[in-house]
C-alpha cells in the first residue's frame, strides 16, 4: 500500500479529531467516507501513537483490517487517549501531544525452526512483530527497534509485554508473525 501526502495529512487529521473528542468527552465524529480518497475507504489496520515530550502517552491499534482505514484511524485516535497504561488525556495537554499514525500490512506467519533462525529472519528496524503463545499475545511496531539494543532485547521485551518470561522465545516455539508499516507524524 502507498499513501499520498494528502492522504497522510487526512489520516493525521482524523487521529487528532479522535484524540480531541476523547479529551473533551465528545462522541466520535462521523466521517463522510464517500468524500474521501478510495484508499481511505478501503479496510485498513492502523495504530495511533501519542507522545508528550518524546515519551509515550498512548498507543492503540489493530492488526486486522476490518474497517475503512479512515474510520480505523479516527477510532484509534480516540482509543489512544484512554490507553489503560496512562491516565486519560486531558484537554489542557492536547497542544503538547504529538500524533503518529502507522498503517500496517497484513501480518504474515514467520517460519522458523530454532532460535537462531528466528533472529536471522527478523529484520530490525523494518519488521513489526506479533508474538503469540496460547492466550498470551503482544506486538511491537517497527519503531520499537529504535529503543532496543538488538534482536534479543526486542524479543525479551515483547515476551514480557505478552506476560511471558523474557526468555520464552528461547525456551519454546512461539507463533511469530511480522508486518510492515507506513508511519508518519505531525
Detail the topology: elements first, then pairings.
Blueprint: H1 5-24, H2 38-41, E1 43-52, E2 55-61, E3 67-68, H3 69-80, E4 97-104, E5 108-109, H4 115-121, E6 128-133, E7 136-140, H5 151-161, H6 168-171, E8 175-179, E9 181-185
Any overview of this molecule?
It is globular and about 50 Å long. Strands 1, 2, 3, 4 and 9 form a five-stranded antiparallel beta sheet that branches. Strands 5-8-6-7 form a four-stranded antiparallel beta sheet, covered by helices on one side. Helix 1 runs parallel beside helix 3 (69-80). The longest helix is centred in the first third of the chain and has 20 residues, at 5-24. It is of the alpha+beta class and 186 residues long. The protein folds into two domains: 5-104, 2-Layer Sandwich (Glycoprotein, Type 4 Pilin); 108-180, Dna Ligase, domain 1, CATH 3.30.1490. Strand 6 (128-133) and strand 7 (136-140) form a beta hairpin. 31% of the residues lie in helices and 27% in strands. The chain has six helices and nine strands, in the order H-H-E-E-E-H-E-E-H-E-E-H-H-E-E.
Amino acid at each position: 500500500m502507498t499513501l499520498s501526502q494528502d492522504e497522510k495529512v487526512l489520516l493525521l487529521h482524523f487521529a487528532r479529531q479522535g484524540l480531541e473528542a476523547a479529551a473533551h468527552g465528545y462522541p466520535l465524529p462521523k466521517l463522510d467516507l464517500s468524500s474521501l480518497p478510495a484508499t481511505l475507504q478501503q479496510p485498513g489496520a492502523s495504530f495511533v501513537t501519542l507522545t508528550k515530550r518524546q515519551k509515550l502517552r498512548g498507543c492503540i491499534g489493530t492488526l486486522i483490517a476490518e474497517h475503512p482505514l479512515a474510520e480505523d484511524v479516527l477510532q484509534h485516535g480516540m482509543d489512544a487517549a484512554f490507553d489503560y497504561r496512562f491516565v486519560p488525556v486531558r484537554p489542557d495537554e492536547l497542544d503538547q501531544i504529538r500524533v503518529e499514525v502507522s498503517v500496517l500490512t497484513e501480518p504474515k506467519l514467520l517460519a522458523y525452526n530454532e532460535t537462531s533462525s528466528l533472529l536471522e529472519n527478523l529484520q530490525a528496524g523494518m519488521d513489526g512483530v506479533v508474538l503469540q503463545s496460547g492466550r498470551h499475545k503482544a506486538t511491537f511496531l517497527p519503531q520499537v527497534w529504535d529503543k532496543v539494543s538488538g534482536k534479543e532485547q526486542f524479543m525479551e521485551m515483547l515476551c514480557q509485554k505478552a506476560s511471558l518470561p523474557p526468555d520464552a522465545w528461547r525456551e519454546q516455539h512461539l507463533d511469530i508473525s511480522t508486518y510492515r508499516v507506513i508511519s508518519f507524524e505531525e
